[in-house]
Amino acid sequence: MALRAAACQDRAVPEPDQRLFFLLQQAAHRLRVAADRRCLAAAGITSAQLGALFAVREGGLTQRELAARLGQRESAVTAMVTRLVDAGLVGRSAHPREHRAVVLELTAAGEEALARVAPEVEEFNAQLRAVLGEEGFRRTAEAVGKLAAWPDPLTTR
């Protein structure tokens, strides 16, 4: 056992830039799990559904546009929208120009869910600010926003 511990100590610790991808995945998972617990307790929705409700509240989105906004496959968004419609949080109406498309609309129950979860979002952000500091929070939000807007991280060089 001591030999194994010594061998581990001899290994070079990866530079932060070599571990960034792993750290981002780890942080995203931990934050998503914590956010899901809070959202489910407050409003019966997941953090992914919360993101969809925020986007739908902005108005006039089709499912395809929602998928693009969330950075998800259309099939995943179709299933999520079905759950949100079944829960009465989102409604569908005919698209004014595309006969096969529907426009997603937030219902009164969807607005209520957002209102119930708002204090949890504020508390979560306050805790992130406490960990990162105000400047760190702002810079992290800016950097993560850039990553979220990156068109295709696997093929862009």
From TrEMBL:
Biological processes annotated in GO: response to stress
Keywords: DNA-binding
A Pfam cross-reference name: MarR_2
Superkingdom: Bacteria
InterPro entries, per database record: HTH_MarR-typ, MarR/SlyA-like, WH-like_DNA-bd_sf, WH_DNA-bd_sf
PROSITE patterns, A to Z: HTH_MARR_2
Gene Ontology MF terms in the entry: DNA binding; DNA-binding transcription factor activity
SMART domains named among the record's database cross-references: HTH_MARR (SM00347)
Residues of the HTH marR-type domain: 17-149
Protein name: DNA-binding transcriptional regulator, MarR family
Organism: Amycolatopsis australiensis
